[in-house]
Amino acid sequence: MREQDHVNQTIPLRFRMMTLGDVEAVVELEKLAFPTPWPADAFINELTINKHARYVVAEVEGRVIAYCGMWVVIDEAHITNVAVHPEYRRRGIGERLMRQMMGLALLEGGEKMTLEVRPSNHTARSLYKKLGFEERGIRKQYYSDNMEDAIIMWVKLREQTK
Fold first, then answer.
1. What residue ranges define each of the domains in the chain, with the CATH number in brackets?
2. Known active-site residue 116
3. What is the pTM of this model?
């Protein structure tokens, strides 16, 4: 995957496909990142049953510090969740992880990618815009913890990964 020169490269990240052995660490990340985290069995089902699911983890010295999941259906990739451990945020890891997912989506036949993001999550929205995502719609009362709307964002992958 293409790396950006301005991204902090001092953190030795290793990206790899998520395995069942990563579920416990990913669930802990979920608890740190989200008010309504997915339970372990949701990830187990994603990894063992959902033929459209692709999950990637980022490791530092063998420790899972970030992950991202997506579903690839025909030519569309839908980001299901993305999280970076609080100790590692604001270091370009989310951007590097998203670029990995965009490249993987292309390899899997994806032409475009979508995701939902909270209007209040300015950091994530800024990152997604930097990656070429555009706001295309609203899902009313999408988030069950506070009934916040979700902004639907899309990107054409081939235009962003040249």
1. 13-160 (3.40.630.30)
2. yes
3. 0.88
Beta strand segments in the chain, E: 13-17, 53-60, 63-73, 76-84, 112-117, 134-139, 150-156
Which of the following is catalytic: 59, 111, 116, 135? Answer: 116
How does pLDDT run across 21-73, given as a tens digit for each residue?
Answer: 999 999 999 999 998 999 999 999 999 999 999 999 999 999 999 999 999 99
Q: Is 159 a catalytic residue?
A: no
Token output for 138: 């609203």
Q: ∠ at Cα 111 (108, 114), nearest 5°?
A: 100
Measured between alpha carbons, how far is 15 from 75 in angstroms, rounded to an integer?
A: 23
Annotated catalytic residue, options 46, 76, 95, 128: 128
DSSP structure string for 7-52 = S---S-EEEEE--GGGHHHHHHHHHHH-SSPPPHHHHHHHHHT-TT
What does the pLDDT look like over 99-144, one tens digit per residue? 999 999 999 999 999 999 989 888 999 999 999 999 998 988 777 7
